[in-house]
Amino acid sequence: MVISKYDHYLDVYERYFSKFVDTSPRVLEIGVCHGGSLQMWANFFGVGASIHGLDINPNCKEVERNGVCIHIGDQTDCDFLCQVVEKMGTPDIIIDDGGHSMKQQQISFDYLFPKLAEGGVYLCEDLHTSYWRKGYGGGYRRRGSFIEYLKRLIDKMHAFHSQSSLLTSDFMTENIESIHFHDSIVVIEKSHRSKPKQITSGTKRVDDLKKILWYRHPRKWLKMHLDGSRANEEG
Ligand SMILES: C[S@@+](CC[C@H](N)C(=O)[O-])C[C@H]1O[C@@H](n2cnc3c(N)ncnc32)[C@H](O)[C@@H]1O
């Protein structure tokens, strides 16, 4: 089986996927090609893992074997994606290594992220196509590139704190636990959350900044000390 990846991808996989090893996860990978990565996932996640690949190329069906199921269709066809998820059950992990065009990455993410299990991980690789215009629709700071889309997703994750009517909370705000960027990879962890609450405990040991700034003002500092010594004399 042929497999070809940037070398640092392996560390990224370890970092976010290790917690699923030997937990029988359901894994969906977009982009099968020769089936090399599907075989790697089967070995990595251990016995009991359910590994599904989807690809537009019907020849990819040939690499189907025990424990690895192949679905043939287009990653931008939401009806097809719906059927895949119905057949495999709620995925714990989704990896997008498909066509890598802006439209493909965005449509697949928008449709599949809500289908991901609570605590699940969505990883999209080869994000550098966001900087490649020809054949992918990317381009530096180009409106509609997947990287620009992800930058807006960072805003969405923070929408609970927004003071602007242009940024309001939605499903993404309530379900994105974290977004991690690596060279050419984004990892989005899913977990239901509500507006963060401030937790305060313990005793103050250090003067707060407002008081310190006040001390630093010579006139006020002098007045405070004079008032203090007068009060002592009178007392
Ligand atoms: C980079 S290869 C996948 C490599 C594989 N994940 C591995 O690491 O061994 C990309 C695959 O995406 C598939 N692909 C391209 N456009 C697609 C689309 N619109 N929907 C589904 N698959 C697509 C191609 O047929 C190709 O097999």
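^ S-adenosylmethionine complex. Residues 206-235 form one domain. The chain has eight helices and seven strands.
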